[in-house]
Each structure stands twice: as C-alpha cells, then as structure tokens.
C-alpha cells in the first residue's frame, strides 16, 4: 500500500504569507519515504500528523520558490539525525541544488554535504527508489529548471505536476497515472502565466486517453482560496467524470487495490 499525506494544499505568495492554507507539501510512504516540496511550515505540520523527519529517505524539491523549499534545510537535519549521520537523497531542480542568477541554492553546503546523494536531474532521468521508480517530468514555470515526477509503484503510478503553465507534453508525461496530483493555482477565468487554472486541468485530463482514477488539486493560491477550491473540484469532477479532491493539511490518500481518502485529526501540541 502507498500512503500520501498532505501537509498543506496552499501555494503562491499570499496564501504562504498569511497561511490561509498550509504550505507544507506532501509525504509519500512507499517502500521508501519520500517528502515532496517542503514549503514553510512543513516541519511543524509533519509533527502535527505524527510524521517523523528522521524517517525521510528522499527529499524531492520541484523548484527554488519559497513556498516549495523553505523547510528543506531543517528536514535534511531530520534526515541526517542532526547532521550526525550521512544519510538520505535529495532530488531537486538545478536551481534548488545550484542556485540561479536570482537565488542562492535552497540548501547550504553544510546541508548538501550531510546527504548521501544529491541530484539535479533532467526530465526523463530515472531513479530507483526502493521498489519504486521515479521518472523526472518537465514543467514550464518562471523557475525554468522546475521538475515534477511520475512514481511507478506496484499499485499504479502516482504523478506530480508542480508549478507549470499548461503545455501539451504534460499529457503524455502524466497520462495513465492512477493518482494525479496537480498544482492548480487559479480558479476558472483567472489564468495567470506559468501556473495551471481549473480549465487547463479539465482540458488536460479530457485529452488523456488513459485517465487518472483520482485527481488531487493542490497549491491553491489566494484567488482559488476565495473562489472556493471545493467548488472548482466539483466542476472538474462533473465535466470529466474523474473523482477530484482538494489537498489540505492532514488529507491522506491510501492507494491499494482501492483508493481511499480520509482527513487525519491533528495531534495536540504541547
Ligand atoms: Zn513557483
């Protein structure tokens, strides 16, 4: 069984600043533990849902924007038992690992050196992660090195479309995934450059010959937050026939023979 637990379903500058929706990314428990896009609050939200950062094997970071990588260093400290043990794998965009003209790398040399392996792959590159295989997928975003993935598992594929504008190749890279997690920043009639909106997702999944069993919308920006992501999810589900959910902190998808979802209760803070 594969378990996907969301530590937030928000994204974009204003949702992040206000924490109108949590921005912690998500955690995949497969044969190895993979943490994806640790935005601000990832560490705190993890403990709220009893996920221990010391158990992370692979940290995947799609790009070097704060809402996706803010908590990267502190998670590496978790993965490496407080930098006492060389452990864990980072798979990040080139901007995350090397920085770019506007950004330093998302992690210091101290943190990068603490990891067993650091990769800044290209679309099409493949990684064997325990019994699963991760295929790196492309994206067109304001960070031009942004990457997503398709994780091949014995329970079907789990695909992640990170921040990107719509482009036709998204269809072939993600077609046939059983669970499709897509960053849908904007609601209907409110498209902005470099991000997906509701209509883009409808167009994309309608064009897929093999459709996902479940679609999960994440990375809701402020306009999506106010428009109501559940209304947008209902619209997508009505016009595509695909079961569509909205990610939020504590939302868990269990992928076995069947796919089931539940919202976990947060642990009490001391
Ligand atoms: Zn971004």
TrEMBL record:
InterPro entries, sorted: Metallo-B-lactamas (IPR001279), RibonucZ/Hydroxyglut_hydro (IPR036866)
Keyword Flavoprotein: no
Key words, A-Z: Hydrolase
PANTHER family referenced in this protein's UniProt entry, alphabetically: HYDROLASE C777.06C-RELATED (PTHR42663:SF6), HYDROLASE C777.06C-RELATED-RELATED (PTHR42663)
UniProt cross-references to Pfam families, sorted A to Z: Lactamase_B_2
Molecular-function GO terms, alphabetical: hydrolase activity
Name under which the protein is recorded: Hydrolase
Domain Metallo-beta-lactamase: 33-219
């Amino acid at each position: 069984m594969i378990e996907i637990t969301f530590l937030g379903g928000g994204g974009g500058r204003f949702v992040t600043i206000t924490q109108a929706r949590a921005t912690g990314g998500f955690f995949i428990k497969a044969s190895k533990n993979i943490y994806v896009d640790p935005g601000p609050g990832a560490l705190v939200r993890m403990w709220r849902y009893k996920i221990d950062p010391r158990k992370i094997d692979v940290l995947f970071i799609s790009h070097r924007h704060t809402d996706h990588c803010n908590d990267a260093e502190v998670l590496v400290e978790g993965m490496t038992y407080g930098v006492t043990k060389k452990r864990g794998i980072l798979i990040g965009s080139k901007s995350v690992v090397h920085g770019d003209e506007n950004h330093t790398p998302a992690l210091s040399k101290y943190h990068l050196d603490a990891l067993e392996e650091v990769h800044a792959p290209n679309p099409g590159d493949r990684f064997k992660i325990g019994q699963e295989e991760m295929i790196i997928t492309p994206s067109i975003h304001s960070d031009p090195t942004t990457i997503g993935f398709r994780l091949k598992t014995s329970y079907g594929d789990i695909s992640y479309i990170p921040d990107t504008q719509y482009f036709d190749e998204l269809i072939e890279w993600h077609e046939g995934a059983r669970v499709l997690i897509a960053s849908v920043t904007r609601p209907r009639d409110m498209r902005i450059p470099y991000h997906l909106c509701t209509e883009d997702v409808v167009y994309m999944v309608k064009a897929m010959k093999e459709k996902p069993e479940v679609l999960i919308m994440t990375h809701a920006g402020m306009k999506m937050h106010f428009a109501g992501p559940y209304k947008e999810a209902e619209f997508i589900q009505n016009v595509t026939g695909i079961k569509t959910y909205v990610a939020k902190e504590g939302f868990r998808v269990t992928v076995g023979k069947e796919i089931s979802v539940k919202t976990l209760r947060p642990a009490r803070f001391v």
